[in-house]
Amino acid sequence: MNCKDKICKDKPDENAYCNCKGSEKLKFVLNILYNDYEIYLSKRYSEVMKGLLQSLYEKVKEEETSIEAVWKETWEETGNDLDDKDLKFLLNNPKYNCDVYFSQLKPDVRPKRTESEKNSLWKCYSFDKYEKLTKENKTTPTHSRYIEYISK
Q1: Residue 29 carries which DSSP code?
Q2: What distances in angstroms separate CA 33 from CA 9, 100, 123, 152, one per listed residue?
Q3: Residue stretches of the chain with pLDDT short of 50
Q4: Which residue range is the domain that position 137 belongs to?
Q5: Measured between alpha carbons, how far is 37 from 108 in angstroms, rounded to an integer?
Q6: Does 108 fall in a domain?
Q7: What distance in Å separates the CA atoms of residue 132 and residue 39, rounded to the nearest whole number?
Q8: 4 belongs to a structural domain
Q9: What's the whole-model pTM score?
Q10: Residue 53: what pLDDT?
């Protein structure tokens, strides 16, 4: 991230001004689901980035905030009802104007596949395996580009 704004770098959140975010309306949100041992990914079926491993993502509607969009999409795509405190803002990927979040699931919670036409079942990958997959470009570009921030 090429951000020079100290507030954005030190205390980022979905409302922070950041010169890496640009001024246009947010387009996408992405939520990386994980537990104490693994990260959840599914394989894309759509033509764009077909076959790559992904986290859940969604286009943001005009009337939605970033946090509203990521909460709604997490619920719709996995059946997991997370609280706002469970949604941790990580960064904005300026190439796609996409806010990226982390959500740690409780040990007994698993994401459900609710949109079978869009993606495969959610599969667990160890953090080491996940890093290897990103370096091999087998994940969507945000994962591969920002692995150093995601894996912290």
Answers
A1: E
A2: 22, 11, 11, 14
A3: 1-11, 17-22
A4: 26-150
A5: 12
A6: yes
A7: 13
A8: no
A9: 0.81
A10: 96
What pLDDT shows up at residue 4? 40
Q: Where are the alpha helices (DSSP H) in 33-85?
A: 66-78
Indicate the number of domains in the chain: 1
Which distant-in-sequence residues (6+ apart) come within 8 Å of 6 by Cβ?
none
pLDDT of residue 15: 54
CA nearest to 118, candidates 69, 61, 73, 150: 73
Question: What is the DSSP pairing of strand 28-34 with strand 98-104?
Answer: parallel
β-pairing verdict for 53-54 and 88-93: unpaired
The CATH number of whichever domain residue 138 belongs to comes to: 3.90.79.10
Residue 12 domain flag: no
Closest by CA to 42, choosing from 29, 55, 32, is 55
CA gap 128, 38 in Å, rounded: 9
Residue 137: predicted pLDDT: 95
Widest Cα–Cα separation across the chain:
42
Residues in the chain: 152
Tokens at residue 37, please? 């041992």
Among 133, 145, 140, 130, residue whose Cα is nearest residue 35 = 130
* 25 Rama sector, left if φ>0, alpha if ψ -120 to 50, beta otherwise: beta
* pLDDT score at 89: 94
Residue 84 lies in a domain: yes
